[in-house]
Amino acid sequence: MYSGRGTEGMAQKTGGAISDNDRKLIRDHAYTIREALFTCTTDTQVECSVAFARLLNRSGVTTENYRLFLRMLITNNPWVVEELLHDREPRLLFSTIRPDAELIETTFGVLTSRHPDELHGNVLEATLGIVQNAYFDPDDGYAIYPLHIMDLNALGKFLVKDKDQAYPQNKFILEILDRITGLGRYYGEPEKNILAKHAFNLRFAYFDSTRNLNDAIPEPLLVKLPNRSDVSPENDFMGLVEERRKRKRKTGARPSK
Predict the structure, then answer these.
(1) 241 neighbors 50 (Cβ within 8 angstroms)
(2) What value does the CA radius of gyration of the chain take, rounded to a whole number of Å?
(3) How do residues 40-89 score in pLDDT, each as one tens digit?
(4) Which residues contact 219 (CB under 8 A, 6 or more apart)?
(5) DSSP code for 158
(6) What is the pTM of this model?
(7) What is the pLDDT of residue 237?
(8) How far apart are CA 205 and CA 214, in angstroms?
(9) How far, in Å, CA of 83 to CA of 87, rounded?
């Protein structure tokens, strides 16, 4: 415990710096903090997470906090996601962050872990933005994080076969897959060629009216499930959040999707 002047156990005033006592408190109560911010299974947890998401939104995405932004997105809770992103373009959320292997792997983990329709639209768009940025030059992206067939399936399963290619979600995914079809084009590496061919097959399964997506993607991955992370805060808290969003819309901020 802090043994300096003042009440025992109280953190020393250190301006913007974090004190040793605060570090110890965070370590000792990591589970409680995690439950409060990331679990979102009760209305109280959602309220706590929404308030923290608002704080993050005001700070903006930086090289120090972008993993925290991503972790908040992973909650997939609509209230949390919309508070985190309400005045930001989801696909550009991480555009200033240089992708690394951990970020890309986590992103594909998010896409893999959710079925179509289960992932909040803004979460899907933000994670696709990371993939698009990482594989704009597919060979450069592959050098950071080597893709797997299952990663491509995780992308392709979010294509909506009964909507045309101009549908924003389809357009975004098809553009990414099109980039990946160029993987290994100039180097002739067999592993890359296999991935490039699978990206082509995913696009072909979407465009060909005689084929279905399950001709290229295992059918269990295509099962549609609703978002089961949609726990709401209590009514009075919901009212405060909605009123704040209305005020922001009146001042010209971009509304949530």
Answers:
(1) yes
(2) 21
(3) 999 999 999 999 999 999 999 999 999 999 999 999 999 999 999 988 99
(4) none
(5) T
(6) 0.85
(7) 82
(8) 8
(9) 9
Q: Could you give phi then psi for residue 103, rounded to 5 degrees?
A: -65, -45
Closest Cα partner for 112 from 74, 149, 142, 150? 150
The residue behind tokens 């890309």 is 104
How far is the C-alpha of 17 from the C-alpha of 39, rounded, in Å?
A: 28
- Over residues 184-237, the pLDDT tens digits come to 887 778 999 999 999 999 999 999 999 999 999 999 999 999 888 889 888 888
Closest CA to 110 of 96, 98, 93, 122: 122
CA distance 182 to 87: 34
The DSSP call for residue 200 is H
159: left (phi over 0), alpha (psi -120 to 50) or beta: beta
Structure tokens at 157: 């399963």
Q: How far apart are CA 83 and CA 242, in angstroms?
A: 10
